[in-house]
Amino acid sequence: MTVRSRFFTEAEGQAVGVENAAAKGDVLLVCEHASATIPEKIGTLGLSQEVLSSHAAWDPGALAVARLLSQSLDATLVHQRFSRLVYDCNRPPESPSAMPVKSEIYDIPGNFDLSEAERFARTSALYVPFHDRVSEIIAERQAAGRRVVVVTIHSFTPVYHGKFREVQIGILHDTDSRLADAMLSDAEGSALTVRRNDPYGPEDGVTHTLRLHALSDGLLNVMIEIRNDLVANEQDQSAIAGFLNELMGKALSSIDE
Amino acid sequence: MTVRSRFFTEAEGQAVGVENAAAKGDVLLVCEHASATIPEKIGTLGLSQEVLSSHAAWDPGALAVARLLSQSLDATLVHQRFSRLVYDCNRPPESPSAMPVKSEIYDIPGNFDLSEAERFARTSALYVPFHDRVSEIIAERQAAGRRVVVVTIHSFTPVYHGKFREVQIGILHDTDSRLADAMLSDAEGSALTVRRNDPYGPEDGVTHTLRLHALSDGLLNVMIEIRNDLVANEQDQSAIAGFLNELMGKALSSIDE
């Protein structure tokens, strides 16, 4: 048994969730912060149940919206089945945020002074198989002559360090802004407050997945950030997914690659 | 095909070499810098053939000595089949030396400004499977109630930054010095110059493999550094392997775990 297989209990299975694997659409949805689950082996990281179920541990609503988009866009969805507090799959192992010692206002005691063995176990069990799987799906599609569009789905907290955020939907990009530009242009006049690289941008290190899988290969890509109070229940999740489905469909059909 | 399988050509195979897998001895030999081979996908890293075959790329003689010890100690040997200039398996991904931009006096142009995708590919193809394999072997033996002793085999250049090194055999350890202490004590009076944590020590970050696999589990461990002018031909390699075999055998039988 390898480190990664010993990391999880039998019931937990493994790190990567893949849904709608046989999808025919161009979009590949990625949800790195889909889950608040902490593997049994890790325990509570010294945190209260309140923190462990808060946005510090995951992006509430992101997986639900990603699943709806997976259906409406006929898109394969790859999601991480464990909390970013254990390993944040949108960060490379050399980033201090990969296994964070602090998240907004909370210290993460279980991540203080991690041994090299513990860092290796998490990197090997959570990060590598996740991106290996995304990479594998992209390579298979490219080999079959299919177009691949990488879209990552995130949510953010309305109040951060005590300040309210006005932006409702963030359209984030790194050096390739083709898809983001088209979506932002189509979103003009929308009732929702849609902004470019807000509340985060590439300078915050949030475009790791885009850099890994899209920028290196020239694939269309975008990162979507949804304010989590807009996706707190099923009805609202449906509304936001519908909005994004429309926006993305329009943008993609307008881009002539 | 995962990133790691696409990283190598079919002829190259994969990163990890395992020899004497069914060995009955307690020692597990690890040779992280066994090879100067650069994967085809990587090219020359902008280096001359001279540098690519120098100690910058590998530890000359280390694999040869490790193979002799593998026979005499009846020890399984795990070795890296590609150069440390691509990924140094004795360094974690967060270390700048993992994919070094400089090695002693040489710049490594092919490692300047590596993309996150390239860093991921190397980590995933070279580092993770290597230590996963070591970890797997240790876990299997522990499950079978066997004792495991982790011994890493390295060589160093006699002249470093223009200065000659007097030490001939370095016995290196981190916080657990049990095996190193016993070996150093047995080496007293030897014709060879054997020294503790010389020419490197844990402060140089060279005990990563020991930390990963031995310190975390309380396994006896040591890192052996051989001055490479002493293992430049088969006869000398035999002599040094004989010396180390004797030293390690004596030390191990004297330690009452």
From TrEMBL, chains A, B:
<dbReference type="GO" id="GO:0016787">
    <property type="term" value="F:hydrolase activity"/>
</dbReference>
<dbReference type="Pfam" id="PF05013">
    <property type="entry name" value="FGase"/>
</dbReference>
<protein>
    <submittedName>
        <fullName>N-formylglutamate amidohydrolase</fullName>
    </submittedName>
</protein>
<dbReference type="InterPro" id="IPR011227">
    <property type="entry name" value="UCP029730"/>
</dbReference>
<keyword id="KW-0378">Hydrolase</keyword>
<dbReference type="InterPro" id="IPR007709">
    <property type="entry name" value="N-FG_amidohydro"/>
</dbReference>
